[in-house]
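Narrative summary of target 7.
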Amino acid sequence: MAKKKIGIYGVQESTANNKVEDLYLIVDEQSICFVVKNHTNGQYIAFEYFENTPDQNGWNQLLGYLQNNSKLIQSFYRQVQFVMNTKRTLLTKLVGQGADTFYQNEHHLVFGNRIEEEIQTQAIGQDQVLVYSVPDALSTLLTRSFPTGKWTNYVSSLVSSSQSDGVYLSLFDDYFIVLILQNGKPRFVNYYNRSGADQNKYQVLNACVQVNTLPNDTNLNVIGYSAERDLWIQDVSSYFANAHLQHAPDAGIGATLNAEYPNHSYAPYFIF
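Modeled conformation, tokenized:
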């Protein structure tokens, strides 16, 4: 069942004949978020966060709840992006002939085959691809409300928003993502379930070992840090040359968000 946790609203300017705002719908296994950004000035102007636990009816009850409780679902948008934030995401090489079969087989080999999911792909640069899965019921539900919406992958947005080489941690309530960029390209990406402090630290440092990244020569970028939740970040940061905490921008609704909720903890939803 879904439950609305946050709703912050600025002034939306889009009309049926003049659409200036973009909607990003970020979905994972525990939540769905509405993020509205003004395309003209680049400011975020609305944010809704819904906790969601699909029950035996799957995603079917979610649409009705959103229609009754979201102030953003009926607005006009220049474009709509469905952003899938899923642990079933694989970074692999770009191939030509027979690509669909290759990507599907690669994904099934790593994550197993779920017949109720569809495989999506997204190119990263000229020689890499993200392969990920989307539940059929979720895709049907969102397309029903936003027929022009297009699927994208959260990791792609994380890569695009990254300014330089280094290690990037994107932190969420139950999991975190480790992304390592080398020479402007992703060399490593993986999702990890949250565990104890020592295990979390080990996962980050072990990721560096796998791609020959030396932490003491590398910058660490932390997105979504919460002082109450992420004490282990202080420890792992000591292994790196520099550590930077990224927070939601103060422009637009960012100042309200940062004032009302723990600093930085919702930054992962403002990377678009």
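DSSP finds seven helices and 14 strands in the chain.
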